[in-house]
Every structure is written in structure tokens, then in C-alpha cells.
Design brief:
Layout (H helix, E strand, L loop, with lengths): L2 H15 L10 E6 L2 E7 L5 E7 L2 E7 L14 E6 L5 E5 L1 E2 L5 E3 L3 H9 L3 E7 L6 E6 L5 H9 L13 H4 L8 E5 L3 H7 L2 H5 L4 E9 L5 E10 L5 H12 L1 E4 L13 E8 L4
Antiparallel strand pairs: 1-2, 2-3, 3-4, 4-8, 5-6, 5-9, 7-8, 9-10, 11-14, 12-13, 12-15
């Protein structure tokens, strides 16, 4: 990145950190420089995300609450971004900027598109030396300012390449000695997608709690959380759990008896088909 680009990022970060605390959970447009548009959001922890559009393309940065240790001798930090468990977890190498407190995403368009969906993310930063930094963050529910920035930068708000395959979308079981021997198919996920949410291009997430039957199938499921509320993702997740999922023992072994009758939480992140 050019020196001017680094100065623009520094200016954007400074503007984000000066935003009023009452507006911390909304995307705020920033006045950075002529011909440059940017939005940012900041959390009480001091973490902040800035998305900046310039002629050369999109830039996405993450402002750390604490400076990184051990980066002066070279080696950028590894960054893991987990989206709404059990969504896709990506480990990427983000570039640390000279301040030592700001990281630049290697895939800014994909990162920005995921932020549009709202929900929660967990950012974990591992530097070559020093302690790991972990940031569980609730994203703003209102993302119109971010969407307008992407439109103005000619960045599509949806790209099917961003979506994980069903094997990642339905996650892994947390019961020792078990694995999913049957998962929801792409056809079942598509057929079960809530109609109104699909028409609006809306993604979401839900967690249901189900009883593990002797066959390994899930039954008697109850919705325990849903986002956005009332969008139908809770009911759809119940259907996926009861019709599409089945537990078995690891490597073909029988299902452990201790698991039968257990109440298992099944979270599912929904990505609008494109």
C-alpha cells in the first residue's frame, strides 16, 4: 500500500475512534478525504472496524484495543474470524500497519459482505509473540450505511463464493465419540429457507435444542434463539434438525448410549441462496 493509503487508513481510524460513544453500535459515515468514502463502527472495548472505498478498491481494517506484541521482527499476525457459530471459520494472515494497533484484511470485499448480515463475529488475533487477543462482537443491526458504501464502490453485496458448503453450514457435533453421519442436503436447505427472508435476500441464524433419539436422529426440538426474530429461521432450523441431521459413532461405531436421550443444542447459520 502506498504511503498515502496508509495515511488515509490512519485518518479513518482516528475518525472512528472519535465517534460519539452513543453511536458506537451503528455504522457511521466518515469524512476522510476528497474522493474517499468510509464507514466505521466502534465497540466499548476500543475495537473498531473501518471499511474504506477509494478508486483502487475496498480496504477493510480492524482496530485492536491493545497493541500487538512481537511484530517488530517481521511476521504478520494470524487472524481467525468466526461468524455466528457454527458458521465458517477462516484463518487468514492480516497485515499489521505501522501503528501496531490496526490490521488490514486480505479479503476486504468478502469481509465487508459478511458484516452486512449483522449477527455476531468473534475475532481472534495471534501475533508471533505475546498474548492472543480475542474480540466477541455484536454487529450493528442497521447496515444501510455500509450497504451504500459497497454500492458506491461497485462492490456486489452478495457473492455465492462467500457461502460455505452445507458441511460447514451445519457445523460439527460437540458430543465426544460422535459425528454427523447424515447432514441436510443443499436441496433441503434451499427448500426449507423461509420464503419472506429469501425474497428479501436476508440471512439469519437460530439455535434449537433437540432430543437425540436411539436412531441418532433428532426430535422434540425447541427454538431457544433466533435472529432476526420473527423471520422464520427458528422454525426452519427445527425442520432441518429433525429431517436432515443424524448422529452416529465415530468411524462407523455405534452411537454411544450415553448420548441417547440427551438434549443437544443445534445451531445453524442461514445464508441466502444466490
Amino acid at each position: 500500500m502506498s504511503g498515502r493509503g496508509g495515511l488515509l487508513l490512519a485518518a479513518a481510524a482516528a475518525a472512528a475512534l472519535l465517534a460519539p460513544a452513543a453511536q458506537a453500535q451503528d455504522w457511521q459515515p466518515l469524512d476522510v478525504a476528497p474522493g474517499i468514502s468510509a464507514v466505521a463502527v466502534q465497540w466499548d472495548s476500543g475495537a473498531a472496524i473501518t471499511i474504506l472505498c477509494r478508486r483502487e478498491g475496498l480496504i477493510a481494517t480492524f482496530q485492536l484495543a491493545q497493541p500487538l506484541s512481537g511484530t517488530t521482527g517481521g511476521g504478520d499476525p494470524g487472524v481467525t474470524v468466526a461468524y455466528d457459530r457454527p458458521g465458517p471459520v477462516r484463518r487468514e494472515t492480516w497485515r499489521v500497519l505501522p501503528s501496531g494497533t490496526m490490521l488490514e484484511s486480505p479479503a476486504p470485499e468478502r469481509f465487508a459482505r459478511r458484516l452486512l448480515a449483522g449477527g455476531t463475529i468473534e475475532v481472534t488475533v495471534s501475533s508471533p509473540e505475546g498474548p492472543r487477543q480475542r474480540y466477541p462482537l455484536d454487529l450493528p443491526m442497521e447496515s444501510a450505511a455500509l450497504g451504500a458504501l459497497l454500492d458506491g464502490c461497485d462492490v456486489p453485496q452478495h457473492d455465492p463464493r462467500d457461502n460455505p458448503p452445507p458441511s460447514e453450514q451445519t457445523g460439527e457435533t460437540d458430543r465426544p465419540g460422535t459425528e454427523w453421519i447424515r447432514r441436510a442436503t443443499p436441496q433441503l436447505l434451499a427448500a426449507t429457507y423461509p420464503r419472506r427472508a429469501l425474497e428479501r435476500g436476508l440471512g439469519g441464524r437460530a439455535t434449537v435444542q433437540c432430543t437425540v433419539l436411539s436412531s441418532g436422529r433428532l426430535g422434540d426440538c425447541d427454538v431457544i434463539s433466533e435472529y432476526p426474530r420473527g423471520a422464520g429461521f427458528g422454525r426452519a432450523t427445527v425442520e432441518i434438525a429433525e429431517r436432515g441431521m443424524q448422529l452416529g459413532g465415530v468411524d462407523g461405531a455405534p452411537l454411544p448410549e450415553a448420548v441417547i436421550g440427551d438434549r443437544l443444542e443445534f445451531p445453524l447459520t442461514w445464508y441466502a441462496p444466490r
